Structures are given as structure tokens and as C-alpha cells.
Fold this protein.
Amino acid sequence: MDISSLSLAELRRLQTKVETEIRRRSDTAKKDLLKRMQKLAAEHGMSLTEVIGQESTEKAAPAPKKTAAKPAKKAAAKPASVIKFRHPENAAIGWTGHGRKPQWVIDWLAQGKPLDELRAEAPVTSA
């Protein structure tokens, strides 16, 4: 497939389709792997939960020694995050513009729409 001749909008549509297909295949692969692991555990007379539980207890770190209780420090007050962008269909969903972009923002941008159209009109703080 020669993608160099595609327009920007066509490339973004293709990107969305590719991301959707990757998620679908990843989910299918995880389910198939889980089934194979459960079958393998059953062949050894165990459940997958038993196998995972045994492994986690073998690798668990020793419990830390208890020391005299220290007075609790006051945690610095964290500033409230301000929602800067709102979901186009559900105003209850927002994003501060920091950290990883939510999927709905990624999808919005993939459609060739500007991020500024999602800007929250009135800042709303979240607790």
C-alpha cells in the first residue's frame, strides 16, 4: 500500500482504523494466551490462580521490621487540577491537558479537528 499519495485526512482515518485493529488483535491475543495458560495449568492439576498465587508468594519480599511510630507529617496541599478540555459529547468528561491524552482526544485529533475546539469555556476544578 502506497500511503504517500494519501491526503492528511485519509492518513488520519487510516491511523484510526489501524489503532482500532491493533487494539482488537491485542485483546484477542490476550484472551487466547489466557486460555492456553489455563489449559496448561489444568494439565498439571492446578488452576491458573493457584499457579500465579504460588509464584507471587515465592517472590514476595520479607515484611519490613516495625519501628516506633513517627508523628505523621502534614502532606503539602496539592493544587486542584483545572479541566482545560471537555469531551465533545459528554461535558462531564474532561482533561487537564497534562499527562497522557485520553482516547477521545486522540480520536478527535485523528479526524483532523483542532484541539482548541475542545477547550473548556469555564474552568472547572476537580477535587
